[in-house]
From TrEMBL:
UniProt similarity note: Belongs to the KdpC family.
Self-association and partners: The system is composed of three essential subunits: KdpA, KdpB and KdpC.
Recorded topology in the membrane: Single-pass membrane protein
Protein name (record): Potassium-transporting ATPase KdpC subunit
Task performed by this protein: Part of the high-affinity ATP-driven potassium transport (or Kdp) system, which catalyzes the hydrolysis of ATP coupled with the electrogenic transport of potassium into the cytoplasm. This subunit acts as a catalytic chaperone that increases the ATP-binding affinity of the ATP-hydrolyzing subunit KdpB by the formation of a transient KdpB/KdpC/ATP ternary complex.
Domain of life per record: Bacteria
Primary location class: membrane
Lineage of source species: Bacteria, Pseudomonadati, Bacteroidota, Sphingobacteriia, Sphingobacteriales
Pfam assignment, any one: KdpC
Cell compartments where the protein resides: Cell membrane
Keywords: ATP-binding, Cell membrane, Ion transport, Membrane, Nucleotide-binding, Potassium, Potassium transport, Transmembrane, Transmembrane helix, Transport
Organism: Sphingobacterium bambusae
Amino acid sequence: MKTHLFPAIKLTILLIVLLTVVYPAVVWGIAKLSAAAGQGQTISATGKKYYGNIGQSFTQDKYFWSRPSAVGYNAAGSAGSNKGPSNEEYLAEVQARIDTLLAHNPGVSVSQIPMDLVTASGSGLDPDFSVQAAKVQVARIAKIRNISEAKLIAIIDMHTDRPLWGLFGPEKVNVLNLNIALDNLSGQ
């Protein structure tokens, strides 16, 4: 018994120290070396302060709509919905989002709607969406703001984050940055 018990206790103590003290200290140290010193990306616009790395709710027709959030954009409650693709309530939510998107974007077909405009991310706080999610909304915004679609496409291209080294991850657009650029362009 001693041959198994004492090594198990030693290993438990070692792992407790390693995983509750050393590892968090290393992660904290790396965060402090980052550009924002571990405080997140803050953006000031229109007299307000926003966190650029946390999803924001944009639902007005004059803005690019955000990716839906399963937690109401509450960073304290980051989580997915935990509803599977066969859950009837979840399917009804997604269908309602599709119907709303189609009603506000005439000329867009169901096949053109990217999945990230009607489904929430795993954290429920994704600040980014796909380039296609932005482009599918261009006609609506161009009409409301009286801006050419070509100019809106140029703004999307300017705010598109490319994959790391051209290999890792998809192209994506930060919705907050895109909407701030849109307000700056139209002077609103």
